Amino acid sequence: MTDGGTGELCIREFVPLRNYTTLGVGGPARYFVCVTAVDQLPAALDEALRRSLPVLILGGGSNLVVSDRGFPGFVVQIGLRGIETSGPGLVTAAAGEEWDRLVAWSVERGLAGIENLSGIPGSVGGTPIQNVGAYGQEVSETIESVRAFDRSAGCIRDVPARDCGFGYRASRFNTADRDRFVVLGVTFQLREDGRVNITYPDLASRFPAGTMPCVDEVRRAVMEIRAAKAMLLDPAVPDSRSAGSFFRNPVLSLESFAELENRAASTGRLEPGEVIPRYPADGGRLKVPAAWLIERAGFRKGQRQGRVGISNRHTLALVNLGGATSDEIIAMMKQIQTGVELIFGLRLQPEPVFVGF
User: 60, 105, 283, 285: which one has the fewest Cβ atoms less than 10 Å from its Cβ?
Assistant: First the structure.
């Protein structure tokens, strides 16, 4: 993991943030600096403090919606690189590493535990913050510890997984201790036996019943699924200009789910004999696909509203069709939220982080 000498900070001004997000919207950062060594970070934070400016920590930009007005503070991009092993299956990656590069690196060595998360854009440092998950896996299942700079105490801390407060798309880093920690690196305990998890329906359907594929086969299957949904970053595919899944899947109590069933039936959103898809969640609750709710509320793949649209391949993704503004993205988000709430009584929660609003 890169932790060399500080060197002089290169501070730039009025840097367009749309160039640093997968959605491709957002105005300029007043000041922008890329940290490529661990001991540059305190200097960058001190500089922001000296100027009495707010700080935005920037990783891969795959989960950001930046205001058209930009960010009137100090953007610190985490450019730390490196992947190391320190024991059987124990892998540490710097926060600035591309997430999918780490997944590919692990799969090449037959290490299992994150192969279902192939193709997810962004950096390693963002994964514990959001507790990134897909196709039946979450990073919290394999994270051993998170190395972070504690801005309150002014020191580096190793936070064990048990103290990270992991939940569905949540951790202490984006809830109770939001803005307190800057992730520097993540240590994963991966499985050397190559045992995989293909219980998720989309993934299970790719393999004959009773077979156990290897990690490389699972990675290839996940990449194919994501490519079919335009969920891989590809400049040649306009549908990939997005922030990934824009809405979280609602997690409901059994009582709330029963209410949802009643509303769906009474408003004609269920076909005869049809049931609402659901998946088990923590605490005996049920997770309902947001995509199903969006589609049954009358929205469709490929629907457009000016320069913003719903992906042609994936209902959960809002797409910048070219030259869109963040205000246009927000307008379509609110339209979908209102439509779903009117029909089902549920307010969909967005997944991205909103900056400068």
Answer: 283
